């Protein structure tokens, strides 16, 4: 006989169930940080041994995108606060704003690449430091795409029939990840600015 | 996700309102989210990959032993890769590359950690399942896909990757360098990216489970050493595998998009390549930053398993439980700062080489602590020579004999001589190859009853052990001498050099020993697969062990324990405790039930418990005295 037991029967309350999963997200943040750490240390060793960095004036678009991603983080923070206060519609608006800003960020990054290509600093380059700019910003953009999916998941959650606990859980997962990729971009941008 | 299925024949009436959960063949055996089933999937896939990799090694051993002889049968099976019955040089390189890759990553990382972390973390910690069963399932399927792609590269025109398991550029970065650098290399890279994703999903899950889902009473210092080893292994993976991904991504861009991360000043034939400014040494740094922790990812679970098996079968507490944990932590930390010892001959600054040499020699200290603790645990134990125990002792043997040569190789000045010779091959095949395989086999024999509810045949187990143990030494020990004489590894036909020709007879011997060792594995394979279906039914606790997994019912159920999860009261190594009724006290037995065997330090300074114990002892003594007077 195979059947299922409800959670109550096995003494697991919903609150405890989400903790390990949130922890998984933190561990993912750690491993992702290390991957980017691998690239930036490549950059440092490369630049030190060749005595030169990328040597570019970074396109202004990177500055704008930094502003945009910061604004999106603020929006997500407000969305989470809205949910905590029980104001679902406010939370929805800010989640939507976060996603719109996320997409805008992606667009501006493409723009930045375009202006880099126009100045001749292309991906296929004999200066690996310049190629690395494309690699780190490209893989960061992949993270943005994943982040958009996770924020969308929280957004859909506000429309679905589910408990406040579950909505909060989705929101927290989205917050951990989105604020992480925000900070990650700032790190990368500052790194590239300082190591030209 | 929020429900747990349960096989229950008695009181299902009371649960009927929860609705029936239908388990189909697909959800039970294929896309299972049950950690025990995923563990079996990892194990069986790992065994299949191990058999394949062993077969590859026999093929290249044939070439090494009889470089001028033709084996027409090879042409029948391998076609153009063995034209005229002789392995082609290109294919030889592919064989060593894929043998190494499969053994290191697919067998000893995924097959070992994937099997035993999945099986034992929830069972020994008292959890219903992993932190994320879904991610766990995904981890297996990424691994499986990686296996399929890696093996798929044998079926393409240009053959599998051939640049060695470390895939150093430029050989790996230029698709036209050798035939294996083409599509085969691309498939290798794709396979490895999937593999790393699988490893990360698994490792993240293990760490989260260990830190968040232990049962009541199971504090970190009451965890079995197996769990400590799996936990630290997973941390190593999380911290080092992403660096490999970073390196692989750059390699993929060098191969396919014309960047110059690792390439510079290359002339192919008469053509000068446009790539400038890169450095292949940077790949080695990124690779070995993963690569060195990787060898500890391979050996630490095996060490954890043998700690458990040796303690259980010596019927003695593990010697130096805390020292064992601190040495594991020491190995974990040190393993990140020794990678340079793989690169002593890359033109490294001698000062930096000295630093890496010192860190490498320091890592011998925690390793030696572990070895001495194993020996001290065995010392005057009431040893039960089960097959698992033999394999665990075998691990200790290989760990010592292979570890000693590590001290030679860790010395920068000696390494200049020994680098890339068969001495290195002998060293790592003993210390991480054989030792880790023996740890894995110890685990299989020990936990087979838990996995399949049946026992394996001990007789075949003994046969398997002795044949494998002897064969492994006969294969790998002579290679030391080749290496000392300067015979280089990875060469297709080193007999072309006159001074090395004398080693041909040794190679013939080694190849025969390898064939003999490979045949011995039939005893294992037969025993394993036969016992799954026809083995003797396993009792609840066949080895008389203390850990939690033996309190679960023999018949598996998703959720592990039918009722409440048991609470843990004591550490897992109370074997042969003076005054106890039996020679083992499971972790679930409270001290109040073992008054006659409690020791003052058991209470960890709890004054109330100590008072009760003293009172009981005083009463008991008085009762004894009156009994004696009568």
From TrEMBL, chain A:
Residues 1-196 form the Heme-copper oxidase subunit III family profile domain. It comes from the Bacteria. The chain crosses the membrane at residues 23-49, 61-80, 92-110, 130-155, 176-194. GO terms for biological process: aerobic electron transport chain. InterPro entries: Cyt_c/ubiquinol_Oxase_su3, Cyt_c_oxidase-like_su3, Cyt_c_oxidase_su3-like_sf, Cyt_c_oxidase_su3_a-hlx. Its main location: membrane. It is a multi-pass membrane protein. It is found in: Cell membrane. Keywords: Cell membrane, Membrane, Transmembrane, Transmembrane helix. GO terms for cellular component: plasma membrane. GO terms for molecular function: cytochrome-c oxidase activity. Belongs to the cytochrome c oxidase subunit 3 family. This is Heme-copper oxidase subunit III.
């Amino acid at each position: 006989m195979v059947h299922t037991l409800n959670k109550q029967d096995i003494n697991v309350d919903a609150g405890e169930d989400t903790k390990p999963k949130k922890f998984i997200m933190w561990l993912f943040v750690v491993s992702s940080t290390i991957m980017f750490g691998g690239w930036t240390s490549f950059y440092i060793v490369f630049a030190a041994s060749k005595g030169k960095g990328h040597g570019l004036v970074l396109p202004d678009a990177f500055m704008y995108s930094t502003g945009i991603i910061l604004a999106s983080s603020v929006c997500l923070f407000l969305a989470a606060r809205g949910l905590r206060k029980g104001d679902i519609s406010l939370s929805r608006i800010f989640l939507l704003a976060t996603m719109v800003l996320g997409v805008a960020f992606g667009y501006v990054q493409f723009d930045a690449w375009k202006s880099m290509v126009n100045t001749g600093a292309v991906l296929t380059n004999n200066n690996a430091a310049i190629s690395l700019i494309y690699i780190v910003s490209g893989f960061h953009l992949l993270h943005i795409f994943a982040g958009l999916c996770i924020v969308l998941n929280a957004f859909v959650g506000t429309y679905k029939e589910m408990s406040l606990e579950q909505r909060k859980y989705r929101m927290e997962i989205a917050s951990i990840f989105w604020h992480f990729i925000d900070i990650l971009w700032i790190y990368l941008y500052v790194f590239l600015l300082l190591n030209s | 996700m929020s429900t747990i299925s349960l096989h229950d024949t008695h009181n299902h009436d009371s649960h009927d309102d929860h609705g029936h959960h239908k388990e189909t063949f697909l959800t039970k055996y294929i896309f299972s989210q049950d950690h025990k089933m995923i563990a079996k999937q990892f194990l069986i896939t790992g065994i299949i990959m191990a058999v394949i990799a062993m077969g590859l090694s026999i093929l290249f051993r044939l070439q090494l032993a009889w470089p001028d002889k033709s084996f027409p049968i090879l042409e029948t099976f391998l076609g153009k890769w063995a034209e005229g019955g002789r392995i082609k040089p290109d294919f030889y390189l592919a064989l060593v590359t894929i043998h190494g890759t499969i053994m290191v990553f697919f067998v000893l990382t995924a097959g070992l950690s994937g099997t035993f972390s999945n099986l034992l973390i929830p069972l020994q910690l008292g959890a219903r399942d992993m932190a994320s069963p879904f991610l766990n399932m995904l981890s297996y399927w990424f691994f499986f896909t990686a296996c399929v792609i890696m093996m798929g590269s044998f079926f393409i025109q240009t053959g599998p990757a051939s640049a060695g398991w470390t895939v150093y550029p430029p050989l790996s970065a230029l698709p036209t360098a050798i035939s294996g650098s083409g599509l085969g290399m691309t498939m290798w890279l794709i396979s490895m990216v999937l593999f790393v994703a699988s490893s990360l999903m698994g490792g993240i899950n293990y760490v989260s489970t260990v830190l968040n889902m232990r049962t009541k009473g199971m504090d970190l210092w009451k965890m079995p050493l197996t769990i400590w080893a799996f936990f630290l292994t997973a941390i190593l993976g999380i911290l080092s595998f992403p660096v490999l991904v970073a390196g692989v991504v750059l390699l993929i861009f060098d191969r396919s998009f014309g960047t110059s991360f690792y390439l510079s000043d290359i002339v192919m034939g008469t053509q000068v390549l446009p790539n400038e400014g890169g450095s292949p040494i940077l790949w080695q740094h990124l690779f070995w930053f993963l690569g060195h922790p990787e060898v500890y990812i391979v050996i630490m679970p095996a060490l954890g398993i043998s700690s458990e098996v040796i303690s259980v079968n010596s019927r003695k507490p593990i010697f130096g439980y805390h020292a064992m944990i601190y040495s594991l932590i020491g190995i974990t930390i040190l393993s990140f700062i020794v990678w340079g010892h793989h690169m002593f001959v890359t033109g490294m600054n001698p000062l930096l080489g000295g630093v890496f040499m010192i860190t490498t020699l320091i890592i011998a200290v925690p390793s030696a602590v572990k070895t001495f603790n194993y020996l001290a645990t065995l010392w005057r134990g009431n040893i039960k020579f089960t097959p698992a125990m033999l394999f665990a002792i075998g691990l200790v043997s290989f760990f010592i004999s292979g570890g000693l040569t590590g001290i030679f190789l860790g010395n920068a000045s000696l390494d200049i001589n020994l680098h890339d010779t068969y001495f290195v091959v002998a060293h790592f095949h003993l210390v991480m190859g054989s030792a880790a395989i023996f740890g894995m086999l110890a685990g299989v024999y020990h936990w087979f009853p838990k996995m399949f509810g049946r026992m394996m045949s001990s007789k075949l187990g003994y046969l398997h052990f002795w044949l494998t143990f002897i064969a492994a030494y006969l294969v790998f020990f002579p290679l030391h001498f080749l290496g000392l004489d300067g015979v280089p590894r990875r060469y297709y036909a080193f007999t072309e050099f006159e001074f090395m020709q004398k080693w041909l007879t040794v190679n013939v011997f080694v190849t025969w020993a390898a064939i003999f060792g490979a045949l011995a594995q039939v005893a294992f394979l037969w025993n394993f697969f036969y016992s799954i279906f026809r083995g003797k039914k396993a009792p609840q606790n066949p080895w008389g062990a203390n850990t939690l997994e033996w309190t679960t019912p023999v018949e598996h159920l998703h959720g592990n324990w039918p009722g409440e999860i048991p609470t843990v009261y004591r550490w897992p190594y109370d074997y042969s405790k003076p005054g106890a009724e039996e020679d083992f006290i499971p972790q679930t037995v409270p001290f109040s039930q073992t008054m006659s065997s409690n020791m003052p330090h058991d209470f960890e300074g709890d004054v109330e418990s100590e008072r009760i114990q003293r009172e009981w002892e005083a009463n008991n003594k008085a009762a004894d005295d009156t009994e004696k007077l009568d």
